[in-house]
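Need the bound structure for beta-D-glucopyranose, inputs here:
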Amino acid sequence: MGRIGVGAMAVVGLVAVAAVAVAGVAVGRSVRSRRRWRRVLGVLRELEDACETPVGRLRQVVDAMAVEMHAGLASEGGSKLKMLLTFVDTLPNGNEKGIYYALDLGGTNFRVLQVQLEGRRSSIFPPEVEQQPIPQHLMTSTREDLFDFIAASLKEFVERKEVSFGYSPEKRRELGFTVSFPVKQTSVSSGILIRWTKGFAIHDMVGKDIAESLQLALARNGLNMRVVALVNDTVGTLALGHYHDPDTVAAVIIGTGTNACYVERTDAIIKCQGLVTTSGLMVRFKFTVVNMEWGSFWSSHLPRTSYDIDLDAESPNPNEQGFEKMISGMYLGEIVRRVILRMSQESDIFGASLSNLSIPFILRTPLMAAMHEDNSPDLREVDEKWREMLEVPEVPKKARKVIVKVCDIVTRRAARLAAAGIVGILKKIGRDGGSITGGRSRGDARMRRSVVAIEGGLYTSYTMFREYLLEALREILGEDDARHVILKVTEDGSGLGAALLAAASHSSTPPPNTVDSVQMP
Ligand code: BGC
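Answer from helper R.:
Posting the output first, comments after.
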């Protein structure tokens, strides 16, 4: 063999060795990547197991909710559920007349409304509404700063709206003030802020009368307006729901935050019997509205994961609003982010740098909903949203599938727990048909039509959430009984409902339609 032949063989040999080495590296890489992928799937499986909500567990949550409601009504601090007396014993019935204003303070925006009522149900629409963002710095400043800003905007709004019929500074106006935070009411138009939720932190407001703080700011800003009703957004929703349908017995908000209120027998509010008998008001009526503040509900039956525990510990209000942190729009995206961050520590398949994914609340719930509901075969929407949010290159399809699955697990758990909460209320007021008493059907219990007014973007705009909730309701109650429970979306109860309650509570003669007219068992 010549030199060329020997040289050629040597080259061939080298190439072969290199090829084997390259193949070896590639095999090694692929083995490692398969191993990492398996770990991602392991994290997914663990999450799925920890978030499981079989119907048996949901029924335990139902029972726990009903038990906690009893405890919260029995004594102050008897339960994590606040069960706040609202002093609302008169619900609007359609006979209200006049022009009323409402101010809705509950999230990153506040809204002002002017509502004209003409004594007929249909005549309340459409109200004049204006919405404004609350500047970020005011959410953590002083009550004077916040309310001066709101009062000045309200004054401008009133001047603009009344210009057509001659604005007069002397005229006194009536306002329904919706505060979507826990408030311990001292009357239908006054109450002490217990604490902030949803990212607000104006420390000098806690423990003070929130209606009075607004009233003072209105005076400072030269607006002649009186707060005649102070209401939680759930109570406004109940008022509007009842206005349209007298079978409405409860209201639920599932949006940025979550909460519920319902119509309770006055004599069941044991902790307030002193107040109930001295306030005269309550003596006249057998039923009144209770603001549960169910966001703070807690039970060992809730399926809690390490992600929930970390989220809570790092939140500004640890050990508070436990139910809300598993259910509401403020937190769902954040739980998903935490899970995917954990997965990204195992594999780089999500394309996101860890520092990017480490930004708390970077994944907002509406974005999560858009990814979850992506029906395109290659999950293009997931890819787009993910890339936009984290500024990363395309993510492979299998990673997109995992993202969707995580959204699904977190949303499904939230929706099913919310359903259990609703059935808990129905059970407390004896409207669950007895089908869940001790997990057995009570043949003798007759199911009555019960309407639950419902609002909040998570329920109204997130189809998968809504479907999971309704499915769980049917599972817990059984198809037959579930037919008697109607979840009715009201539109803008927190605004309109407050104006209606202002009208109802301002009316001098007791209106014929009171909470008594809600048929209770
Ligand atoms: C507040 C409730 C409110 C709910 C819905 C919660 O964070 O504590 O008062 O009703 O959000 O807005």
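Comments: Residues 438-444, 508-521 have pLDDT under 50 and may be disordered. The longest strand covers residues 109-118.
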